[in-house]
Amino acid sequence: MTFEKRTLAKAEMGYAVATMNIVGERRAIVASESTGPAVVFDGPAFAPRMLASAPGGTMGFAEVPGRDDALLVITRFYPIFRAEAAGIDLFVARDGLNVAWEGRRIIDLPFVHRMVTVSTPEGDFLVAATVCGGKAFQDDWSKPGAVFAFRIPPDLSGAWPAEPILEGIHRNHGMAVAAFEGVPSLLISGSEGVFALSLPGATAPDGTALPAWSRTQVLDHEVSEIALHDFDGDGEAELAVIEPFHGDTFAIYERGAGGWSRAFAAELAFGHGLSVGRFGGTPVAVVGNRAGSKDLVCFRVTGTAPLAFERIVVDAGAGTAGTTMVTTAEGEGFVASNAEFAEYALYLARG
Q: What is the pLDDT of residues 29-44, one digit of tens each?
């Protein structure tokens, strides 16, 4: 397997990357962790269109359920961990992608680092996690962060009622929404491990109603980023992770009779920007290295008993911060923010 690269736009300190429903189409959106703009890539040519010029410090995006003309953005989380003024802004389209969107702060949440939105039988929620509870200096991790659920008001105005759903978690860096062991769940990772929280209104596989945000610990060691995907084709999702925090290992965990155990591992250097999916029908994971070789790599499944992967260097020295899977008219691939090259790039899988 090879990859065709296209540089989409130049960017200083590009970081956040996501694929979302924006103005009638599934589009890639990117933004800087510094003071650069948020950019949407439009149409089959992936033409860059500025969505917002400020404030930057963007750690992530989330869709507003039922809306493709509005989105949520974590802002003012600047390098390195200058995030006392961080929070979540709501951006709303004024004229599609023809002019910059209007943004306003809706939630002040210092050190907020990850977020998702979920639609449940009990309403729509924004879930956001802080990487810590505050810092006296850059490497101070003494104060744990927390995960909060905010009920999304139907008209997006007024108060966004908040509830802490997981406290005492340090260095949160991963968040995913998936059916986990048959239960619609939110997965959270941090120094304390990986936790699965049942979504409001969820039921167990036997039909038993579960309390909202009920917690199951999946792994009990430090994990950075997480993603779920069926890598071995058995119909059950495996857990792909970077570990520990900004870690040196890419690993796959599979569920067995005794719980979750490691099925595969490979070396990383400051692992960052994990995405999973399929290229040409074959399961893959894409991950960046922000230290060492700084290579952007793709792990492609080559065997399932035991689970085996081919390691493909997609772009040497890219120092990739984030990736997101995309499907284009020309095939499958992904968009990456390459810090070392000061660019956003599209990679199309070939072969």
A: 999 999 989 999 998 9
